[in-house]
Amino acid sequence: MDLLARMSAGYVLEPFEVEALREAFQRRLLDQPEKKHGIFFFFLRATVSKEVMHARVGVATKYIDWLAKQYLRPPRDRGIVW
User: Cβ distance 73 to 22 under 8 Å?
Assistant: First the structure.
């Protein structure tokens, strides 16, 4: 998704997009398991630790917050009168 274009147009993330990002942050970057213990264990190791997940979400949150402050404006600043 193009966050810059969306926020420039005044749109924010939809709930399903936030959920998709969460799922993406939870996945390992490499699809290969560290040790080969069979296919069952591969799927158990397919997610990252809570610490890695927390770090990824933290960085993404700060970036999206920065983008929003740069590109989202209150309606009166965009010439829209409510």
Answer: no
pTM > 0.90: yes or no: no
| Residues 21, 60 contacting (CB under 8 angstroms) | yes
DSSP conformation class of 33: -
Amino acid sitting at position 38: G
54-68 per-position pLDDT tens digit: 999 999 999 999 988
The residue behind tokens 């965009």 is 78
Dihedrals φ, ψ of 48, to 5°? -90, 170
When computed from its CA atoms, the radius of gyration of the chain, rounded to whole angstroms, is 18
- What tokens appear for 49 in the block? 């630790």
